[in-house]
Amino acid sequence: MAESDGVFLFIATYPDEDSARADYEVVKELHLVDAIGNFDAAVVTKDDKGKIHVNKDETVTRKAAWGGVAAGAVLGILFPPSILASAAVLGTAGGVAGHLWKGMSRSDVKELGEFIDEGQAALLVVGDITVSEALEKAELRAVKEMRKQVNVDLDELEKEIKAAND
């Protein structure tokens, strides 16, 4: 698989939700000026009972070709449904999650889930190589960042996402 064919996960942790949301705004701006291609993103927070909350700006995700499905699929892989505060986050992401799951090792899943769990808030961005490159250059407020390439065919993933949105 060519380097440009992969799907990239960007996860950053923050001391608070406001900082994560500020960087989410940076990602949206990068998309608006065509610095990044298709993407999906979510701000993830953890409450005092250990439940994971997913906060998405549906207006942006409806405009994006990925339709809000990819971030939900990744979170469904990383966290058991029992700690996700809303099952709605998984939505129709079953096929997309299965496709992404095939491209991730068990150690990747464990590492990513633990990484998100370390902070009070996190930003998860799923996208193509343009997302990885642009976020590398952006001045983000994250305490820690992690990037992972998921070994899946981007064209096949986009077909799954389109089917989930239809």
Task: Describe the structure using short key phrases.
166 residues; alpha+beta; 5-stranded antiparallel beta sheet
Strand content: 15-25%
The SSE order reads EHEEHHHHEHEH
Q: Enumerate the spans where pLDDT stays under 50 for 5 or more consecutive residues.
A: 59-64
Helix-and-strand structural type = alpha+beta
Biggest sheet, strands in spatial order? Answer: 3-2-4-1-5
How do you describe this structure in short?
The protein is an alpha+beta fold.
Description:
Strands 3-2-4-1-5 form a 5-stranded antiparallel beta sheet, with helices on both faces. The relative contact order is 0.29. Helix 3 crosses helix 4 and helix 4 runs antiparallel to helix 7. It is α+β, with helices and mostly antiparallel strands. A hairpin with a 5-residue loop joins strand 2 and strand 3. The chain has one domain.
Secondary structure topology:
Blueprint: E1 7-14, H1 17-32, E2 39-46, E3 52-55, H2 58-63, H3 69-78, H4 94-102, H5 106-118, E4 121-127, H6 129-137, E5 144-150, H7 154-165
